[in-house]
Amino acid sequence: MNDGSPLYLAFLLGAMVVMLGIGIWVARRTSSGEDFLLAGRRLGTPLLMGTTLATLVGTGSSLGAVGFAYENGWAGALYGIGGAAGVLGLVWLFSDVRRHGFMTFSEEMSYYFGASRVIKGVVSVILLLASVGWLGAHIMGGALYLSFLTGMDPALAKIVVALGFGLYTVIGGYLAVVVTDALQGTILFVGFTVLAVVALVHTGGFSGIQEGASEEATSMLGVEALGVLPALSLALVIAIGVLATPSYRQRIYSAADVKTVRRSFGWVALLFAVFAVLPAIAGLAARTIDPTLENPDAAFPMLATTVFPVWLGAFLLIAGLSATMSSGDSDAVAGVSILLRDVTQLVTGRLPRAENMVRYSRIALAGVLALALTGALLADTILDFITLMISTVLSGLLVASLLGKFWPRATWQGGLAAMVGGSATALAVENVAAWSQFWGNPSIPSLAVALVAGVAVSLATPRSSVTREEALRLLAQERATLDVGTRLRGGADGDTGTGAADAGESAKTDPSDPRS
């Protein structure tokens, strides 16, 4: 066990008490499902920036990026570049969906395809599993760090990390996530800046960190170490993760209005692009200090215990765990929103009653956390799992969302074909060694096949007869049942919109339901 482990554990316990206190404080302000799952849809720029940035700096882009840079040098910065590109893509392509009052990505996807129940059902199951998978990966990343620093048994460390963000999330809901994320995001930026600067000084500056790495690793963005296509694929797969992961969509749905989304995400993209270089510096420094690490994911905690005094290492413990907790809590709430809003309806044929939403949300959160923890206890690797999941699940989903939003001829059958084609291609590339080595990861071929499949099947199937206005009305009727999102608090330009409750009320007078 590390000599500083008692201090590390004391810092961890103190941080958990603070987060739990925030959860209890926020719980007093939570009276409805909309409050618990979407913070009342009134997040302003500071909180939206803080929570989005903290979620973006997750297990992959912090601990994983440092480990990746340990092996591949400046290629570790590709995580930040891909993430910033993904956020800008959200601003450009999807920020305007805030005005429609959606609650889940499944609901948004259904809207694109004529309020199709088939699309909503399939996407909801896929995204629920993806959210649980993301959550398990964050638990694994935090546990690896905690175990390295304290000598704690890895299985016990996973349980501690899950409880660390699980308690305040279950108690306070999404608003607790947002407030704690803002705090954790500040700690993250300060912590990683300190880590990179001190590590750089410790190794003798840029010339020192480059001496410990290969010439290929120190090339521009590590392209010579990875190859052009694998480097592009890495940045692209991170961007896809941002564009099609439900937790980022939930940031859009919970914002006060479209202008807030665009302003906040613009700042987040800029800050994350700046952040991109920090994990790369840390990874290169770790390589110079100790080139014999068996597990590259341990590069970050190794620096905290080797380069820094114990008290500073303890602070970095909180910074590292903040990266995992601030992403894990978001995926947990996103998964519960999908479970209660979409999967429950798919299985039972009805939605939970509004007065039961907070209680059901807390129960569902506990269940989702338990499921993710079980998966984390059975798994060993982190980043390979994350990149495979994105390529397999999210590439086709992104293509389907783009076709549905921007191509009027897209059909729900074409949307399904895009998702199936993308997933099948990703699995094929991963299982053929030569293909996997050539592409780096399956994101590029997965996107290409998904696009061809989506267009071809859409052209071969009948055009939807449901207009966008009718689709909104049908979805608003369902949403009004939950009393979630029934009143929009801001539109694209300060317009409050018609309100989902009004749309839902008018839908009750029309028995027609042309959805698939």
TrEMBL record:
Membrane topology: Multi-pass membrane protein
Superkingdom assignment: Bacteria
Major site of localization recorded for this protein: membrane
CDD domains linked to this entry: SLC5sbd (cd10322)
A matching Pfam family: SSF
Ranges annotated as spanning the membrane: 6-27, 47-70, 76-97, 118-139, 159-179, 186-205, 225-244, 265-286, 298-321, 360-379, 385-404, 416-438, 444-461
Stretches with biased composition (Basic and acidic residues): 505-516
Segments of this protein annotated with the region Disordered: 486-516
Localization: Membrane
The entry's keywords: Membrane, Transmembrane, Transmembrane helix, Transport
Family: Belongs to the sodium:solute symporter (SSF) (TC 2.A.21) family.
Protein name: Sodium:solute symporter family protein
Lineage start: Bacteria, Bacillati, Actinomycetota, Actinomycetes, Streptosporangiales
